[in-house]
Every structure is written in structure tokens, then in C-alpha cells.
Structure to design on (229 residues):
């Protein structure tokens, strides 16, 4: 059973047809990288998956939930889906550790102690346990993005969505974020990634989706997609 399935999905922003007849199935454990020119609809497609955007027609089924029914409990639905953005979206006035424990205590109802334990485990995972008591502004961009990833992982998601996670970073910080993402792919996390990092896409993608002007023009295994003609 596919974890994510787009069936004839279209989306309009007013008169602008941003997604055109999207058909795409993503299986559990798959790593799918979406590439294509700026403005082709990559980010919109990604944001439809956790219902940050509503589709206009067709069907979108994510983690067993048919997203167009009005009955969907969005907060419940989003628990299983982590998202990492270009901007790190950390609370500047909260320490790193407090940024992370917020959601598991409020949303999952974990005790502060449990949440802190889990958070520390993931901070260790992303290599910045020593920054737990720092404030975001005291961290580099790469470190802040790793906090954002740890924060998502603390919710124990089934799917991780990445929207150009390295685009706002100085070049020397990109590698450390890609390393963390690479380690997730090795653990069987289902991941959908929008990125311009072609070397990384080639390396980690099970399949590459190429979009242009709101359409999927090609879907192919990485080895095939990047094969020299
Ligand atoms: P990509 O991620 O491939 O750069 P996006 O999905 O961000 O593309 O955007 C696709 C197109 O939709 C762009 O032309 C963009 O200007 C337009 N767009 C994005 N969000 C909105 C919005 N909220 N309202 C109107 N147009 C939008
Ligand atoms: P919002 O409340 O965020 O403005 P709505 O839930 O009102 O969005 O959605 C606007 C329209 O798009 C509705 O007709 C809705 O049924 C449809 N729609 C939204 N999401 C989906 C989806 N995932 N699949 C199919 N139709 C959808």
C-alpha cells in the first residue's frame, strides 16, 4: 500500500493552474526527490502532502487519510508528518531544547522529562547535543537546521518532507545538513525532498520526479534519471 498517493490532482491559485494532473505514488520507506525549475510547483506539491495547501480536484491520500473530506482532523493527521523548511522556524526566545520539547509535550502529551530525554537523543543524533541550552541566534544556520530536523524527528513521524532545506545556508553548512538527511535515508524513513542539490539527489533518491510548469514530466529511478545519454 502506498503511503502517499496523488490521483489526477490539480490545484489552482485563482486563475493560475499550479499543479496539473499529478499522479504519483510513494511507498513506505521510499526517498523521492523533486526537482525542476523555480516556479514549477515543487513546493506546492510538497505542501499539499501535509495539507498546508488544499488541492482543487482529484484525490490525495496520505497515510491512509483521504485529504479532501472535511472530517479530517488536521492536527491528528500532521502528527505523522514532519516538515523541514528553508527557514528554520525556531522560536528565537527559547533555548534549543525548549524549542524541541514544545510539540511532544503539548501535542503528544509527553511529560517534560520524557520529552527532554527524547529531544536529547535526537540532538545527539544530529550532532549538536552540546547546544541544547543555547539560543537559536547563537547557532550557525547549519546547526539551526539540524535543530529543526531533530524537532521533527522527536515527533516520531512516518513521513519527512523537506522543502529546500539547504537553500538558505552558507555553502560550508550545506554538507552537515545533507549528512543528517543521508543518515535518515539509511534508516528507512519515507522522505520527499525538494532540493537543488543534484549530487545529493543522485546519491539518495530512490526515484527522481522532474516537474515543469505544474506537471510531472518524468519519474525515474535515480540511476536512470541521471544516466548519461
Ligand atoms: P517551486 O517550488 O517549483 O519554485 P512553487 O510551488 O513555490 O514552485 O510555486 C509555483 C507557482 O505558484 C509559482 O509561479 C508561484 O508564484 C505560484 N504561487 C505559489 N504560491 C502561491 C499563492 N499562495 N498564490 C498564488 N500563486 C502562488
Ligand atoms: P481551506 O479551508 O484551507 O480554505 P478547504 O478545505 O475549504 O480549504 O478546501 C477548498 C476546496 O478544495 C474544497 O472544495 C475542498 O473539498 C477541496 N480540497 C481541499 N483539499 C483537498 C484534497 N486534499 N483533495 C481534494 N479536494 C480537496
Amino acid at each position: 500500500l502506498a503511503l502517499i498517493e496523488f490521483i489526477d490532482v490539480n490545484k489552482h491559485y485563482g486563475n493560475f493552474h499550479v499543479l496539473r494532473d499529478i499522479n504519483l505514488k510513494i511507498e513506505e520507506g521510499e526517498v523521492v526527490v523533486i526537482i525542476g525549475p523555480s516556479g514549477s510547483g515543487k513546493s506546492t506539491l510538497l505542501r499539499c502532502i501535509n495539507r498546508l495547501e488544499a488541492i482543487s480536484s482529484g484525490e490525495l491520500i496520505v497515510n491512509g487519510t483521504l485529504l479532501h473530506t472535511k472530517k479530517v482532523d488536521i492536527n491528528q493527521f500532521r502528527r505523522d508528518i514532519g516538515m523541514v523548511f528553508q527557514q528554520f522556524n525556531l522560536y528565537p526566545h527559547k533555548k534549543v531544547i525548549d524549542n524541541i520539547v514544545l510539540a511532544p509535550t503539548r501535542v503528544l502529551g509527553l511529560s517534560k522529562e520524557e520529552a527532554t530525554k527524547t529531544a536529547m537523543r535526537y540532538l545527539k543524533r544530529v550532532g549538536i547535543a552540546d547546544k541544547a541550552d543555547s539560543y537559536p541566534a547563537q547557532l550557525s544556520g547549519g546547526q539551526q537546521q539540524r535543530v529543526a530536523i531533530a524537532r521533527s524527528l522527536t515527533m516520531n513521524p512516518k513521513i519527512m518532507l523537506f522543502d529546500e532545506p539547504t537553500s538558505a545556508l552558507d555553502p560550508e553548512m550545506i554538507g552537515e545538513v545533507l549528512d543528517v538527511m543521508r543518515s535518515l535515508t539509511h534508516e528507512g524513513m519515507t522522505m520527499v525532498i525538494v532540493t537543488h542539490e543534484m549530487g545529493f539527489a543522485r546519491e539518495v533518491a530512490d526515484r527522481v520526479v522532474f516537474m515543469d510548469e505544474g506537471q510531472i514530466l518524468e519519474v525515474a529511478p535515480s540511476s536512470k534519471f541521471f544516466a548519461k545519454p
